[in-house]
Design a protein that fits this description.
The structure is a homodimer. Chain A is about 60% helix and about 10% strand. The first copy, chain A, has helices at about 5-30, 35-40, 50-55, 60-70, 95-110, 120-130, and strands at about 45-50, 75-80, 90. The first copy, chain A, starts with 6 loop residues before the first helix and ends in a 10-residue tail after the last helix. At the A-B interface, α1, α5 and α6 of A face α1, α5 and α6 of B. Chain A binds a DNA duplex through α4.
DNA sequence: TATTGTTATACTCTATAACTATA
DNA sequence: TATAGTTATAGAGTATAACAATA
């Protein structure tokens, strides 16, 4: 991996830029990024806790507490699963689904704003390059 | 900003990829990302608290506490500035400078690993595009 | 009075270990 | 005994408001 000096820093700057924008957009929906990604993941259907933890890349205790906080707000609901009663299935409430879909669309529409300074054809090239990196489409897809 | 559906998600995946790698590299130096960026910023000389907060993009109380934690470990030192005694100048200790330079070089050398899956010429194009985004070279430069 | 930085307080996120309940 | 999930505990990060010291 040979690259110009300072490129590590440039990558950190890019990540920070994306995340600051993400925080802004999520805040407009009264969500933190973690809460947003949870609701986005649940927006098309229920999931087991273990699967969610893997999808979101977090440990199970962290997920339990994230769910606690957002369940209090009535956006998700835990239900014991029937065949194996150890399993907890998490589903978004109707309001949770509505918010999840809204924030997902908003992120999709407005997060690319971070690239405004690039010419349209450069934005397109950038999108193609990033999409070619494996395992990049993580949480909500 | 017109882009293919799901591109917002792709950008979030890219940011997450970069940050996971950053966390790994920092951890090998026994630092969190925030601590690392502080030491990297101080690696070439002292700074005032207010300037540091602006450079790192955090509020002053957050910086005070970050400094508290890393000062305990003997990596930075606070000194009252003379002309205006309200001002606190923060400087890295010799060990802090050593660690700051080491982690900076390591990040620069190894963070670009996240692009290994791209062909070398695509990595080069990617680097050029990212470097063209304004305000991207933030904290430690 | 305005400014620099700190303290106080609270919340979110995360990690590890110990625990409960099912299987 | 193994697994799914939770609770307990701790630490890092961040935000806001109130405060101290200095200008």
């Amino acid at each position: 991996m040979t690259s110009q000096p300072g490129f590590g820093d440039t990558l950190l700057g890019l990540a920070a830029l994306i995340q600051r924008r993400h925080i802004q957009i999520c805040a407009e929906h009264d969500l933190t990024p973690a809460q947003s990604q949870l609701l986005c993941t649940l927006r098309e259907g229920p999931r087991r806790m273990a699967d969610l933890a893997a999808i979101l890349g977090m440990a199970k205790p962290a997920l339990s507490q994230l769910v606690d906080r957002i369940e209090t707000r009535g956006l998700v609901r835990r239900t014991a699963s029937e065949p194996d009663r150890r399993v907890v299935t998490l589903e978004a409430t109707p309001e949770g689904i509505k918010i999840g879909r809204a924030v997902y669309e908003d992120v999709d529409a407005r997060l690319p704003d971070v690239l405004v300074a690039l010419a349209p054809e450069d934005q397109q090239r950038f999108a193609e390059l990033v999409s070619a990196i494996p395992h990049i489409r993580c949480p909500s897809t």
